[in-house]
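Dear colleagues,

As part of the handover before I leave the project, I'm documenting each prediction I ran so the next person doesn't have to rerun anything. This entry is a single chain, and its sequence is reproduced below.
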Amino acid sequence: TDHVGELAYLLFVLKHGQPAPRDQELVVFGPAGLTDHLEALALAHGAYIRDPGFPVTVHELEAGESWEKPEAGLRLLSRATPHTDRSMAVRIETDQGTVGYTGDTGPDAGLGPFFRGCDILIAECSRPDGMELETHLTPGDLAELAMQAEPKALVPVHSYPSLDPSTIPQELQAAGFAGMVLTGWDGLGLDLVRGRVKVLETR
């Protein structure tokens, strides 16, 4: 549920939780099973899940599959990650720059090349070094990935209580990553324009 738990609330908030209700189409990407999950949410929460007041289009992707909308200058690439049998990382390429998101993942030698050149890389960093798992990253694991990917801004997220998020930038630096690190927090906003990353003060 930590992977998809906020989806129902997002659909509600886009209609009722902002000054101007959304009326544009929302395209939702996810692995096989996403459509069934939305149908189950509709049974639990109501028909607004499938008809929230604006069009919702679902695209189910197999890991390794890509999707693009050339007229919008948008391309999405995916890659399987070692976490669940359907988990995947995504790389979103636009005319303004490129954003990568690891999703939940364990160490994977292919992720660095997959994310190489991203302007922003949002990456899970769940557990401290010394408490490694095959399905999650530590600061040491993330530093190795980031040194291959070389993002302009690295945003660690998804820390468990055993890992203090405030220590992650120093730990990444100690492990060899010298780039910009912005520890993720709820409400963090980043603006990406022509490859330049700007932090929006949202706290």
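The CA atoms of residues 134 and 152 lie 27 Å apart. The helical segments are 7-16, 34-45, 111-115, 139-149, 168-174.

All the best with the project,
I.
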